[in-house]
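Supplementary Methods, section 5.1.

A reviewer requested that the exact input to the structure prediction be made available. We therefore reproduce it here, unchanged from the version used in the analyses.
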Amino acid sequence: MKRKLTALFLVLVMVLALLPASVLHTASADAAPVDQAIVQGGAILHCFDWSFDEIREALPDIAAAG
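The structure derived from this sequence is encoded token-by-token as follows.
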């Protein structure tokens, strides 16, 4: 019985992994729509390994960069 449950769980995980993110994602009702024209020319700042002090010090440069 334990083997069947484990197999069923693994199959479920594999099926969910194959679904596109749009199927699994439900947008919040109060979320603003995203303007794709702006996003296409944008950039992402990865600062996950920065300390809060480093981010605070870089805020003027980040704001100037847009």
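DSSP finds four helices and no strands in the chain. These observations are discussed further in the main text.
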